[in-house]
Design a protein that fits this description.
2 domains; binds flavin-adenine dinucleotide; 5-stranded parallel β-sheet
């Protein structure tokens, strides 16, 4: 009990520090804006022979989009550098709500947040494309363009080969919402659903499906002996209890071996067969580091993560101008999440600004246990929020009222009015 109290106090101190940091940044950005208005700092057009001096960010999700804003608002107006963001998605993909919107209808458009107002437009170049390879001086885009860089920030995150519920494969919002609707219909029409993978996406999806359709048979298969096995014991127990209360049949310590779509069943590693009309895979996310494979294969771990130094420069001394942050980077967290990604984005962008000003000093990133907080939904109206430092855990159960999981807050966070968009249903407005 004492351990929990101490952890709680540490959590409060961490939160205060975090808010002070946010406040400090807002104030310093506001001051910088005023200073940059001084006549001698006003933007001058670069000399015609100056060439391009780009800071290129690959990927605009939690890590890259945040870094783009920080860089765009930190560089002085007379900087010779330009921030270029390369991102294939038409909209910010809000991953957290994907499992919920695979089941619950009518909110899917809310998972795709328009890019734009979060970053002052005049300060960056936005390219909707995909980087195919990174070379020493430039990146090669799928659309054919080569974009040179002086500094590069790789924020390509991770991808799920099976797509939903972890990721949407499509780049355009219209196609993404269509995919979510297809999934909703499939789940609605299914009598016997099997979900494979007892991490957050699998637990949330299975709980929502059973919560929405109590008459259906929902089975969750997980290869480990506990659900949420990368987290502490208390969360493992809470998630198992939550699913059992809803009536989800949880099978632990078994792997999926095969699916028979004719006989409508799946076979597990013990030989056991489970009836199955529809199978959903919720495992197997992989870091998107391939774009660096030809340039610096030694910087890629067997897991696919990019090896980084504590400064978030990639672990290749010949490429000090390449940084990485977010899910793609191996920064030592067991359970990387959006908070880590944004914290790293802060360090990486601060370091790029320092290096662009010719400074040797670099900040370092150290993960903090409180950033590993997870809020796990356990059905349509319940959740648990979990903190743990490896020894002690704090668990906060809550009742949830909003089926859209308060994603309006995320729209506001990214500078847009919920849920105003240039989309009507699945198609862009004229
Ligand atoms: C279902 C689900 C629920 C989650 N819930 C939570 C939660 O509740 N709280 C939490 O903190 N975290 C949660 N997470 C984790 C969180 O989403 C990730 O940690 C976070 O998205 C990592 O951000 P990122 O910017 O590093 O990468 P990503 O979000 O993976 O984004 C990478 C970006 O890079 C782009 N990209 C990839 N390759 C290229 C390329 N070659 N060229 C150009 N662009 C490229 C992608 O299009 C994408 O926009 C959840 C994850 C999932 C899957």
């Amino acid at each position: 009990m004492l351990g929990k109290r101490i952890l709680f106090v540490k959590l409060v101190i961490f939160s205060i520090k975090l808010y002070l940091d946010i406040l400090f940044r807002s104030v310093s950005t506001a001051i910088r804006k005023q200073v940059y208005k001084l006549p001698f700092l006003k933007s001058k057009p670069p000399p015609p022979d100056a060439g391009e001096r780009n800071i290129v960010i690959v990927g605009a999700s939690f890590a890259g989009y945040f870094a783009a804003r920080l860089l765009a608002t930190s560089l002085p107006p007379n900087t010779p550098f330009r921030v270029v963001v390369i991102e294939p998605h038409s909209h910010f993909n809000f991953t957290w709500v994907f499992p919920r919107f695979c089941v619950v209808k009518g909110h899917e458009h809310k998972a795709f947040i328009p890019y734009g107002k979060y970053i002052p437009e005049n300060l960056i170049r936005w390219v909707q494309d995909r980087v195919q390879t990174v070379e020493r001086t430039h990146v090669q885009l799928k659309g054919g363009e080569k974009v040179s860089y002086e500094f590069l920030l790789v924020a390509t995150g991770s991808g799920a080969t099976d797509g939903l519920p972890s990721r949407v494969r499509e780049d355009e919002k219209g196609e993404g919402t269509r995919s979510l609707r297809k999934m909703q219909t499939k789940i609605e029409e299914t009598k016997r659903l099997v979900v494979v993978g007892g991490g957050a996406a699998g637990v949330e999806l299975a709980a929502d499906a059973k919560g929405q359709y109590p008459e259906k048979q929902v089975v969750l298969v997980h290869s480990r002996e506990a659900l949420m096995n990368r987290f502490g014991m208390e969360l493992q127990v809470a998630s198992l209890e939550g699913l059992k209360t809803l009536g989800v049949n949880v099978i632990l310590g078994e792997r999926l071996v095969s699916e028979d779509v004719v006989e409508k069943n799946v076979t597990l590693s013990s030989g056991r067969k489970v009836d199955c009309d529809f199978l959903i895979h919720c495992s197997g996310q992989r870091p998107a580091s391939d774009i660096l494979a030809s340039l610096t294969s030694t910087s890629i771990n067997p897991s696919g993560h990019l090896r980084v130094k504590s400064t978030l420069q990639i672990a290749d001394d010949s490429l000090p101008n390449i940084y990485a942050c977010g899910d793609v980077a191996d920064t030592g967290e067991h359970n990387p999440n959006a908070r880590h990604a944004m914290q790293q984005a802060k360090i990486a962008s601060d370091n790029i600004v320092l290096a662009a000003r010719g400074k040797k000093k670099q900040y370092t990133y150290k993960p903090h246990w409180a950033e590993s907080v997870i809020k796990l939904t356990l059905g349509l109206d319940k959740s648990v929020t979990h903190f743990g430092n490896g020894k002690t855990e704090l668990l906060f159960p809550a009742e949830e009222k909003d089926l859209a999981l308060m994603c309006d807050g995320s729209w506001k966070h990214w500078g847009v009015t919920p849920f105003e968009d240039d989309f009507e249903g699945e198609t862009p407005k004229k």
